[in-house]
Every structure is written in structure tokens, then in C-alpha cells.
From TrEMBL:
<dbReference type="InterPro" id="IPR006379">
    <property type="entry name" value="HAD-SF_hydro_IIB"/>
</dbReference>
<dbReference type="InterPro" id="IPR036412">
    <property type="entry name" value="HAD-like_sf"/>
</dbReference>
<keyword id="KW-0378">Hydrolase</keyword>
<dbReference type="GO" id="GO:0016791">
    <property type="term" value="F:phosphatase activity"/>
</dbReference>
<dbReference type="GO" id="GO:0005829">
    <property type="term" value="C:cytosol"/>
</dbReference>
<dbReference type="Pfam" id="PF08282">
    <property type="entry name" value="Hydrolase_3"/>
</dbReference>
<dbReference type="InterPro" id="IPR023214">
    <property type="entry name" value="HAD_sf"/>
</dbReference>
<dbReference type="GO" id="GO:0000287">
    <property type="term" value="F:magnesium ion binding"/>
</dbReference>
<protein>
    <submittedName>
        <fullName>Cof-type HAD-IIB family hydrolase</fullName>
    </submittedName>
</protein>
<dbReference type="InterPro" id="IPR000150">
    <property type="entry name" value="Cof"/>
</dbReference>
Amino acid sequence: MIKLVITDMDGTLLNDKKEVPAEIYELILKLKERGVTFAAASGRQYFNLLDSFAPIQNDIYYIAENGAYILNGSEELSVSELPHPLIEKLLSVAERIPEVYPILCGKGKAYVTSREPRVIEQVEPYYKKYEIIDNLHTVDSVIFKIAVLDFIHAEKNAYPHFKDFEDQLQISVSAHEWMDIMVKGVNKGEAVKKLQKILGVSKAETMIFGDFLNDYEMMQECEYSYAMANAHPKLKAVCNYECPSNNDNGVVDTIKKVFNL
């Protein structure tokens, strides 16, 4: 019996226009009536996720910032912070890569230095609260992760520059143009394990939907792992099931079918 349903956001629950399916709110409440918990797991900022689930924001769990921040509604359950000396080193590397813009993702807001319209256009869908500042090296707040915006190709352009840090850090390519850098062991999969422990739910009782490489670890923490039709081939390889694409309402339709709703 499935007791926990988790979905990624971009490329999974949301269509390519970044729209939330209208049916999802009622569906989540129906699941709750059956004793099934719903969680959103995303690289997005917590405040952004709150907006996405505004009608039912206190009825679900949140795995934000790719697993660095876990909450039950507004109640903090887990916080993972990047050490500032390491942030300094990472920024120095990122600032030397062509077409790459680092963003510090903090507990209260995100920080970015570029005012270029193309950068802000990429930042705003994922970070509801952000501040444009002159120098990221001066930030002295709790930082969950560094999001690396790469206008060439995150997996091919930015990622190779950070491979030497993989013994110290968790590096996740979350989209064609995005890569996230976090404390070692922080990822959606570890966050799912923490949530399962809190809820007393097993892998066999968990259903998860995803589409990209930052979902890779969490898809292995459940029996009902669904890769979207539009998912990265490497993700499909570790999933037990495939469902229709994000543009074909795959998450909602699959939940309705499995739960007979």
C-alpha cells in the first residue's frame, strides 16, 4: 500500500509553461483523506514551492533546494548549510567559467550579481525571494547551496570544472542550464530517506516521479519509481515504471489511475 507520494516539479509535475495542473490540489486532499502523504521535491526555493501549492500549502511536505531544506508546511525538519570557506573556493571557480553565473541560495533569499535580463529571466521562476548584490563573497547568511546557471550546457560546460570537489560535495545537474552544489550527502534521495523515517514509511510504500539527474538518487528510494516520458535516459534506466510526459499531465493521471481516483 502506497503511503507517500513525492513529485519533482520542473519537467515532472509542471508542464513546459511552468504551470501547476489545476487538479493537483483536490487530488492531494483526496490522498490525505486516505492517509497518504504528499511531498514536493525540487531544486526550487521553499518560498517558490509555497506559491505553487498556495491553496494547500500547509497540507504537504517540502523537499526544497534539492534536499538541503526539508519542511512540513512551515515547520523545519532538516537544514543543511554549506561552509563559507568552501563557498569562497567554489565561487572563485564558477566566476572563471564562460557563460556561467553562480547564485547563492540562502535560507531567507537567493543572491545574484548579474542584472542581465536573461539571467533574471532564469532566476525568477525558481527563486521568489532574491537580491541583486555587487559581490557574492560578502554574503554572510546561511547558504544551502550554490546554483550554477550555465547558458552553454551545465553538464558539459560547468560540471567538469567542479569534478575535483566531488569528494567533498554533492554536485547535481538539475537541468540543461542548471547545476546545484551542496554539502556531501545532500540530495533528494537522502531527503526522501529522512522523510520516510519521520513518517514511518518504507520504500515499498513510496511512489516518486522525476525527470532529470537531480532526481537520480531519490528514484532509488522507492518501489514505485516513475520516470516521465520526457526524462533523461539515465533516470529512466533506474526507474521501475514510465508515465506520460509532463506536458501530458503524467503525474496527475498516473496518481488517479493507481489510486482509482
